[in-house]
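Researcher: I'd like a candidate sequence for this fold, 266 residues long. If you have to choose between options at a position, lean toward the conservative one.
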């Protein structure tokens, strides 16, 4: 059956394609064999992304940054709860599992239907088929005395600032002393979806962006910025000509995504 997705859910196929392409390289940033198997099993025209080279690099840098940050968190909290919101077909659990963490994948029912074709739940690995804005989903998370980490990649830029603020306020309330790894888009790239090398192929658009993590702190007095990473600082050769432009501070600040690490304080 040919895969039919539209709007924001379809964008989950961009990182799948990017990781599958990377898995075939001799020098992968992150090697994700699952992605290659899934792409080959899904009936979808992935050839539309063949020219999306910068997105492909960006996805892989993002994957590496989030893997390393999440792994560091797990080392500090080996019995932690990890919640991957807007998970799509991500496979980070299988790279980072220490045999003790509890991991929750959260995404829309149509996305989770595809995911369940490839993965099965266990006592420590659960899938929740709900919108991230359906605020009943925190009730599905089994709390522990260890830390909670929320991961949000490739999702929040598709929603409005008010929606993001409402979500963060809910997360702060539901997971006091939790931490969050979140991808942010530069505000200069908002409303430029039609120029994006991969998203322009879909019926989706960027709606929200912030210059840096300090702006996210303003959403709630209990949010603190802990760290921030700019994609252009990593694997500079792979960025090609963009790597040269990134030596210009203003360009580096304003024309690429970042990962921010937030703490929720009481």
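Model: Candidate sequence:
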């Amino acid at each position: 059956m040919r895969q039919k997705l539209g709007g924001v859910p379809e964008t989950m196929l961009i990182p799948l394609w990017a990781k599958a392409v990377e898995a075939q390289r001799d020098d992968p940033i992150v090697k994700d064999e699952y992605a290659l198997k899934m792409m080959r099993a899904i009936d979808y025209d992935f050839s539309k992304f063949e020219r999306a080279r910068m997105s492909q690099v960006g996805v892989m840098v993002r994957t590496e940054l989030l893997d390393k940050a999440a792994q560091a968190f797990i080392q500090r909290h080996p019995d932690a709860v990890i919640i991957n919101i807007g998970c799509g077909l991500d496979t980070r659990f299988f790279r980072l599992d220490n045999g003790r963490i509890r991991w929750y994948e959260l995404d829309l029912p149509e996305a989770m239907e595809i995911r369940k074709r490839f993965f099965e739940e266990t006592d420590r690995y659960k899938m929740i088929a709900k919108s991230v804005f359906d605020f009943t989903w925190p009730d599905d998370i089994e709390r522990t005395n260890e830390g909670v980490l929320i991961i949000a990649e490739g999702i929040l830029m598709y929603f409005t600032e008010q929606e993001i603020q409402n979500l963060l306020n809910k997360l702060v309330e539901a997971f006091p002393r939790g931490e969050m790894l979140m991808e942010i888009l530069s505000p200069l790239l908002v409303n430029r979806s039609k120029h994006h090398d991969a998203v322009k192929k879909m019926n989706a658009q960027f709606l929200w962006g912030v210059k840096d993590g300090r702006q996210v702190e303003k959403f709630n007095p209990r949010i603190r910025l802990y760290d921030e990473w700019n994609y252009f600082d990593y694997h500079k050769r792979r960025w090609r000509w963009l790597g040269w432009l990134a030596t210009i501070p203003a360009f580096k600040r304003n024309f690429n995504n970042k990962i921010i690490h937030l703490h929720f304080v009481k």
